[in-house]
Structure prediction request, 413 residues.
Amino acid sequence: MPNTADTGSDAPIDVTPLLDDPYPAYAALREAGPVHRITAADGNPAWLVTRYDDVRSGLADPRLSLDKRHAAPGGYQGFSLPPALDANLLNMDPPDHTRIRRLVAKAFTPRRVEALRAPTRKTADALLDAMAERGRADLIADYAGPLPIAVICDLLGIPHRDRRDFLAWSDALITPDPSRPELMKEAIGAMQEFYTGLIAAKRAEPGDDLLSDLIAVRDDPAPGEGAGAEEGSERLSADELTSLAFLLLFAGYENTVHLIGNAVLTLLDHPDQLRQLQRDPAELPAAVEEFLRYDGPGPLSIRRFPTEDLEIGGVRIAAGETVLLAIASANRDPERFPDPATFDRGRDRSGHLGLGHGIHYCLGAPLARMETVIALEALLDRFPGLRLDVPRGDVRHRRALRARGLISLPVAF
Prediction:
């Protein structure tokens, strides 16, 4: 990527290198300046923030709003969802964000996550059994993808028969085909219909699952409220409930499949560290933190909109403009992490931003960590001779700014 010394100018930089080989491109941008003008996926201009201190501060700055109502007129277009899927935590500021996150936290308990540990290992072992019969596999399609789908669907109480459809819908949203925009629209419509029907079924017949608990939060008056409690009380609106189910399922799948896939590829690129973890799997929880720093699933934070004119890294940004905080760049900033392009499980990785920072820190972080540790532990135990089944140069990541994940990962054992 060419040097962009005119940081803060109105001329957007070319983001193609960020799609094709992001880490060298981010390094060049950090060197050139802390904030750069780019063209976002919706075709509108945005500001890209690249250095650790600025990104970390931005993630916790209340003046950087997630609420799209703060976007400048005629600017941000973004990802269009119907209201029944759009009233989620990724579009909210306090007090609504605080209210909903508190309600979800009551249902999304450490006890419930811990209860998924044994079923997660059982699912991992079953997937590995199927792979072992063939001697080779696509680790994304056969393992890293099906495992988090099974876990999040078990958490929410989603029937097995619906999981294949969800995978197809998710792929249409994660990597849309620009030549067939109707596929994304169809996937969104199918998801809305699915969640509406699922919530109705759970309301009629509740189960011991997170979605049933969230429906109870929606339906039951809080202490001291009458049947006519106003919207905005300590309950969920109908759209908030549907949107929350959508977010938990979609984010619970997308982030974890990419994290597991990236982690396995990183270990295949570092066979000495792979062997060390095979000898001492108790080190896996610490290794996951370095995976999140080194090659995490979320290169960019969710877009933000300044509620007032402000300055980031010496660059003046007007209220309502789109700001993108480059987590992938911050996690490779040498001012915070020495020799950042080296995968080093022994480094001080405290303060990495792989799961966010501030009030929007990933709600499902304990679940993602648990799934990744179990996925890697089971895989490394079962297949000590795990190796790539294609030349390293044939392994491809999805071309997307907002997600860092593999298209496929052919392995043999």
About this structure: The radius of gyration is 21 Å.
